[in-house]
Design brief:
This protein has 190 residues and is of the alpha/beta class. The protein has one domain: Pyruvate-ferredoxin oxidoreductase, PFOR, domain III (Pyruvate-ferredoxin Oxidoreductase, domain 3, 3-Layer(aba) Sandwich), CATH 3.40.920. It is 43% helix and 23% strand. A six-stranded mixed sheet has the order 2-3-1-4-5-6, with helices on both faces. Helix 1 crosses helix 7. The longest helix is centred in the N-terminal third of the chain and has 14 residues. The radius of gyration is 16 Å and the shape is globular. The mean pLDDT is 91.
């Protein structure tokens, strides 16, 4: 069985680490995996997205539009931007907290993400909305949104790993002083 995953958001949200944790967990459990990240303007809050493929018979890390089993959107407009990759019947997990694009801030536009969330509500057959603001407030750190989103992804059952298996990889990857906080965030999302 193959699983195609699109992870997207803006620079600084932890998209690349999330992708690497899923890939490393796959490797440690002998699940074939390929990934490719596009980070572009990540340092300036630009788009970041990652293609991940798990399972046998994978020849390329990228996949065509309409074939992602799971879309993990860390930011509403970025989730809409990558929405064409989600297959019919696929699951979208989206953080409800918008991040004002630099271009909108410079032009004085207002952006609250509401239209983007409504688009996903109308068009995704399966959608999970994560209140990222509440999560990071409850956990006590703005730096753990990626672990909350990863926990929510595990909870869908679409990843062939348990929360404990992801957590084991995370503990081997992040600095020891951040392991407990990240574990708390994973479990919050899951």
């Amino acid at each position: 069985m193959q699983t195609n995953i699109m992870i997207c958001g803006v620079g600084g949200q932890g998209i690349v680490l999330t992708s690497k944790l899923i890939a490393a967990t796959a490797v440690s459990h002998d699940v074939p995996v390929m990934s490719a990240e596009t980070i572009g303007m990540a340092q300036k809050g630009g788009s970041v997205f990652s293609f991940l493929r798990l399972g046998d018979g994978i020849a390329s890390p990228m996949f065509p539009e309409g074939s992602a089993d799971l879309l993990i959107g860390f930011e509403p407009s970025e989730a809409v931007r990558m929405f064409p990759y989600l297959k019919k019947g696929g699951t979208a997990i989206v953080n409800t907290h918008p991040i004002m694009p630099v271009t909108a801030a410079l032009t004085g536009s207002d952006y609250d993400g509401a239209d983007m969330l409504e688009y996903i509500r109308r068009n995704a057959e399966k959608a999970v909305f994560v209140d990222g603001d509440k999560a990071i407030t409850d956990i006590g750190s703005p730096k753990v949104l990626n672990m909350v989103m990863l926990g929510a992804a595990v909870a869908t059952g679409l990843l062939p790993f348990s929360l404990e298996e992801i957590e084991e990889t995370m503990k081997a990857t992040v600095k020891p002083q951040f392991a407990e906080l990240n574990s708390k965030a994973l479990r919050y999302g899951g």
